[in-house]
Amino acid sequence: MIAKKITGGLLAATLALGASGTLIxxxxxxxxxxxxxxxxxxxxxxxxxxxxxxxxxxxxxTWQYGTTLWGGxxxxxxxxxxxxxxxxxxxxxxxxxxxxxxVKEAGIWASARTYAVCGKVxxxxxxxxx
Length: 130
Fold this sequence. Notes:
By secondary structure, the protein is mostly beta strands. The chain is 0% helix and 45% strand. It has a five-stranded antiparallel beta sheet, with no helix packed on it. Strands 5-6-7-10 form a four-stranded antiparallel beta sheet, with no helix packed on it. It has a two-stranded antiparallel ribbon with strand order 2-3.
């Protein structure tokens, strides 16, 4: 997995509107994305390992995205699988830290993850590659 800090000038892409109405800037023009808001509350022992997960089936694939909480804010993640097309996943947190799965062949999960920013909106994406 590749993770890097992005400055505003490096993030040239098309704009998309997330399900929450939040403006999303995908890392490249062939990505589709959504926003994920992370709570800042610290879970109790009973709540350790809480995660939010959304699953959808875009373009015949399976996309899992959300957050995990492990004694703090946890991670934001994006996992995408497509059985007939090359694809990838990525995440961008509120600190502009970007993580990319790399291009995966059909039938292989693409997984990207980075730390979530408490109380802020983090973003998850998937995309296709030629």
